[in-house]
Amino acid sequence: MAAEDPSVSGVSGRYATALFELARDEKSVDQVRADLDRFDDMLNESADLKRLVRSPVFSADAQLKALTAVLDKAGISGTSAKFLKVLTANRRLFAVADVIRAYRALVAKFKGEATAEVTVAEGLNDKNLDALKAALKSVTGKDVALNVKVDPSIIGGLVVKLGSRMVDSSLRTKLNSIKNAMKEAG
């Protein structure tokens, strides 16, 4: 399955494929995705966790002890926790963000969903997320899973990447367009 999807390749693709096949066999695909999403959110919110994951300075044992404490506190257990511990033991924890992205792509393909990368200036509430999903579903004809990233530098609006299509309605882009038009006129 990994060979069919170019976004699921390399080390991260192999690990994601193995996890997906295990979760599918255990009928826990959604639970594993929820756990990985929670871990990804924690990773994005904590500089210390990000340092633990990315730094080669920490030994595998130190990483494993710290990761175990983080997973216990977050309530991540079962297949997801075992998988993250295997990544740590194999010294591949630095690739966890890519593995999570690849896993999401495999789940989306399995469920017949499309995945959209959405960048916003500030977090969206559930009502706005649902409206965005509905709008994207009307365009694609498929359920759309959203990977939302907050980037205050876009000032306002949003940037949506869905497959090979991209819609950039960010305020930063609009301001840059106006700036360029003024340079040309002046």
Please tell me about this protein's structure.
This protein is α+β, with helices and mostly antiparallel strands. The protein has eight helices and four strands, in the order ααααααβαβββα. The chain has a four-stranded mixed sheet. Helix 7 links the parallel strand 1 and strand 2. Helix 1 runs antiparallel to helix 5, helix 1 crosses helix 6 and helix 2 packs antiparallel against helix 6. The longest helix has 17 residues.
Give the gist of this structure:
With about 190 residues, the protein is α+β, with helices and mostly antiparallel strands. The protein is about 60% helix and about 10% strand. α1 (about 10-25) packs antiparallel against α5 and α2 runs antiparallel to α6 (about 95-110).
What are the main properties of this structure?
61% helix, alpha+beta, single chain, 186 residues
Strand order, main sheet: write it out: 2-1-3-4
The global form is: globular
Total number of helices:
8
- Unreliable residue runs: 1-6
How much strand content do the residues show?
Answer: 5-15%
SSE topology sketch:
Elements lengths: L9 H16 L3 H17 L1 H8 L5 H15 L3 H12 L6 H16 L2 E7 L5 H15 L3 E7 L7 E5 L2 E4 L2 H15 L1
Parallel strand pairs: 1-2
Antiparallel strand pairs: 1-3, 3-4
